[in-house]
Write a structure and sequence with these properties.
Blueprint: H1 3-25, E1 39-41, E2 48-50, E3 55-59, E4 62-66, H2 69-76
Antiparallel strand pairs: 1-2, 3-4
Length: about 80
């Protein structure tokens, strides 16, 4: 009968400490250091689009990014 309180205490202590010990043992996941893609602003409709999916047009001023072919045509017509 004397062992019963000690056994209950030991079980509760293990249940509380075990998750903490597992977290300490597992290596922390590194945070992503690179951004996958950036947003660019369409000069016609003023929406933002992911650069890799944007329609590109090269002008004398440089590269311009558009959300669609329609916006690219509207800009070239100006």
């Amino acid at each position: 009968m004397r062992l019963l309180p000690f056994l209950i205490f030991a079980v509760v202590a293990v249940m509380i400490l075990l998750p903490t010990l597992r977290r300490l043992r597992l290596p922390a996941r590194p945070l992503p250091t690179t951004v996958g893609d950036e947003l660019v602003k369409d000069p016609v409709c003023q929406t933002y689009i992911v650069k890799s999916r944007a329609v590109r047009r090269t002008t004398a001023d440089g590269v311009r990014y558009f959300c669609s072919e329609q916006c690219a045509r509207l800009d070239m017509g100006r």
